[in-house]
Every structure is written in structure tokens, then in C-alpha cells.
Amino acid sequence: MSRTTRPLNLLLAFVLAVAAAGLIAGPATAAVTVRTYETDPVGQVPSGCSTPSGAASAVVSSTRGRASARSLRVDDPSTTTITKIACPRPAQQGAELSFYAYPAALPNGFMVDLLGHQKNVTGEQPVFHLVVDGNGRIRWYDAANWTQVAPAGTVPLTKWTAIDIQVPADMSAAHVYVGGRYVGDAGPVGVRALADITGYQFSSDGTPTSGDDVYLDDVGYGPAVNTPPPGSAPFTVAPPVTVDQSTTPVQMPNAAVIVPHGTGRRVLLAYPAHTDSSATNGTRFAYSDDMGTTWVADQAANPMPDAASYNLTRLRNGDVLAVSYHTYMVAGSGDLKAEVDSSVSHDGGATWTTRTGMMTTPTAMRTISSVTDRPGSPLGGFVLVHPVVEDPDGTLYQSGYGYYADDTKYRQIVLRSTDGGLNWTVAATVAVNPNLTTAAGYEGFCEGALERVADGSLLIVMRIGSYLPMYVSRSTDDGRTWSAATQLVAGPDKQSVVSVYPSLSLLPGGPLVLMVGRPGLALLTSPDGSGRTWTRPVEADYQNSANGVLLPTGANTMMVFGDRGANWSHPTPDPYSVWSRVVTVNR
């Protein structure tokens, strides 16, 4: 075997020059052992590596090398066998894997894995699982679906391309560089916490596909890289603080607000305490008087302890408004009315007045679910999500989604209230299109996050399905009409943003911030506050159910909230928990 070592004391100018020339895969780091295969026997598996059971061997080849005569060849001529090589290393916290790839033929793709162990899960397995597909895209797998890291053409055919995968010691994500340029992040398989990293492996795309032929050279492996990638510069994300934990579900926090308290401020947070089902209900309530350093459970102050979920907003007059997520069909209304439960506090959340109003639709609804959390009361046609947006005259706008009677996919609407959030009418349908896509997971437009942005327009970001692109629409006439929904794209490569439960807020200092979920939770910012251009998504936290909420706390600061998995997560969280993080938008 042939190995070299990158020393720590390289002159900075030299490092930058080499990186700029594309001669190394990413930023200079601690010593990384690089394998060139020059003394490994041709036609053999390199020493220190092995062929996993049932796989065909990847072997040393003299057909080509990046800067020498030999390389490692992953050639897959078979429709029944994967070509694979595994290279174990001592267990460590975090890692760096760098290499050059030359796809001679790539009809399908090739896989790159970091191996290791998940916490509380027996057995070694891929803990970061990436693919370079036949179009030259890089994607990663979270045990449920694939998410794009870099677009088509990132890794071209018949050309040596430097790829560097850097995992910090906390093993929360893998930062991916191509040709020395940071292109994005990959999360851990299963979005689970990791115990260690124990090596790496390369493989062909799988069976029954065949025809992939890839050469790998200058394969480097070394310790964790803890330097944040340049693309994360818009945000500084603090470590998580536990808000609550339980042996029974506490998950998907989606309601937070700041109120005056004494000489300071108090953060109020509500979150569901039941399984993710329309037939279950119950919420918990907590507060923090030190901006998230510590949290106190306060169920006695919970405005809606028996609701499935609810949204919180502090209004311009200082009142705090809680609006129930579920609505309930009104018998005898021709399915044109649904009850809306809400609660109002005039004293910063110390006491609450509960009430029931109505939402009225211009077209008959059909119930959003065949089950209900209130026996004898069918759910209404729409659920209400996210905080309300308030105009100076007190007009309130509320996001909702669901069904009119003839809808086959979700319809995204905006409702309007002129009586403080007691009663609601439909201001407009933002988007509905049952034929937008043939993707299997298409649900329709839903979960719209609504905000009044810097240019005065109303902006809404919407889900259409798990792992599918998000869509955006804008209104310049106070919600009466909306632009045609278009895909939300971000970053220098204009990649589509995916996929569920967006949370959107304009910070007092000017930036518009968006948090999106699945996989994990990621943050984007529109620096001018308009929402017309967005920075690349940056990991906030990957190990969660992908449902969370953000809350502005200052000119350029906010808190984000999430969980450690839902009742459907595998393995089941033990314990369930809800967390907060402080985030700064760097300007």
C-alpha cells in the first residue's frame, strides 16, 4: 500500500493556491492519510480493505490514475451483484473522507458511505450515505428518501473531480465540497444521533442496475473537521437546550411568542403531547425568563391544554392570541361553517379567556379527516397553521389548508378576521392544483407559512409533499389575489428547497428567515427581507421529526424549536424531548 500525509504546518498561501487550483478536495485540515494505490497489486483488493459478503470486488487498476499509474476501480458489469469495498478504521468522533473520482461510465451512479454506529442501535452500518447519480448530482439518504446536495453536472463524466466530505466531532452533519467549493450538507442516516465513525466504503449503484465504472484515487481519511463551511456564514446556531422530556410523546413544537414580564421578557412555548394523529389531542406549555437558557413547565397557564395543537401570536395591542389548529364542522350549515376555538390573554399569558367563533367559506367543505379528536364533532374542512399576520388597522390574516367539497388535493387558503381573531372568512385561495405533478407523494398545497415582508407584500411558502419542492406565492393587494405558485429555489445553484412545515419570519433588523423541515431542520435567509432571493439552506438540527418553529428575539436573533423525533420515528425516542436553540443571523 502507498500512503502520504498532509502536514498541519503548510503555509497558508500555499494551501489557498493549491485549493484554488483544485488540487485538493477541500480546505486544509489536520493530518489526513492519503492512499495512492501505487504499490498495491493490480487486480487485488487494497490491503486494509475488504469486499463485503455477497458483493463483487473493487480492485486496484492500472488503466488510469489521477497523477500516477494506478487507482481503485469500482466496475459493475452485473445485474445481480453490487461492486463494493469497505475500509474499516479505528472508531472516532467525526471524520474527513476526501478522494478524486473519474466516472468512466455512469448510467446509474456510485455510492459513498461513512460507516459507524448510531446511538442506541446495535451494529455497524452506513451512518452517512451519499450517491453521485448518473446525472452528476450528489444526494444523501436519510433512511426514508433521497435529498439533493448538489445539482446535475456537479461531478462530470470522464474527468477527475475532487470530493471532500467533512464531518465535525458532533457528527450532526456531513459538509460536502466539490473541487474545493462547498456545495451543501448531508445528514446522518435515519437522522439519528451517532456514536462513532468507523471507516468508509464505496460501491456501485446497486442491482439490477449495471454499467457503472468509476475510478477513485488519492483517497484520504482523517480526523473530524470542526471548521464551519463558508456557506453556513449567514447563521450562528447555538447548542440545544432541553425544554421538556417525557416517556410519552412531546413533539413538533409549533407555537412560540415573547411577552413582557416584570422588567424583562418571557418566552412562551406550546407543543403537542400526543401521537401524530387527528384523533388525538393534548398540549404542554412552558416558559423561559432568560431567553432560552432554562425552561419551566407551566401547564396551569396553558390556554388550550386539550387542543390537538394551536398557534400563538402577540398582537399590536399587547394581547396574546391562541388559535386552534383543528376546526369543527357546524351541523346544519351546509358545510359552509366550522367552529374555530381561540383564547386571548390581556396579561402576557398569565390568564386566558377562551371562546368559540366561526370560519365561513364561500363553497361547501368536506372534512379534512375521517377521524376526530372530539367525538361527535367532525373536523372542519381546514386546519389553521402558523401565527397570524396583523395589519395596523387590526385586520388579521391566518393561513389554512384543507378541502372544499370537490377537492382531491389540499387547497391553501388565507383567512381574514376583523374582530380580533374570533370569526374568520376566506380572503382567497392561494393555490390549488390536483395535477401539479405526478409524484407519488404529492398532497396539494398546504402548511403555508405567511408573512408581511420588507416590500409590503404578503409572502407565503407552501409544502406540496414530503421530500418534494416547496412553492411560493405573493400578494400585493393584502391577500385578495395571489401570484401563480412557483418553486422556491435558493443558493448560487438555484436548487429547489424541500420539503415540509415551513416557518417564516421577518426579523426587526431586516432579514427574512425561513426554516424548513425534512430531512431535519434547515435555515435560509433573504437578506433584503423580500423573499425574492435566498441563501443556501444551512443545517439547524438534523436529529428531529422535521417539524419546528422559529421566533424572532432581536434585530438579527431568533430562537428555533424542535424535537428529538416523533412517535413514528425509528427507533422510538427514549425519552421524547423538545429543545430550543438560539440563532444569530450574521450580517
TrEMBL record:
- InterPro entries, alphabetized: Sialidase, Sialidase_sf
Q: Which residue ranges does the record assign to the Sialidase domain?
A: 326-538
User: Is Signal tagged as a keyword?
Assistant: yes
Keywords assigned by UniProt? Signal
Would the keyword Signal be found if you checked this record's keyword annotation? yes
| Signal sequence bounds | 1-30
Q: Which top-rank group of organisms is this from?
A: Bacteria
- What Pfam families is this protein classified in? BNR_2
Q: What is this protein called?
A: Sialidase domain-containing protein
Species, as recorded: Actinoallomurus iriomotensis
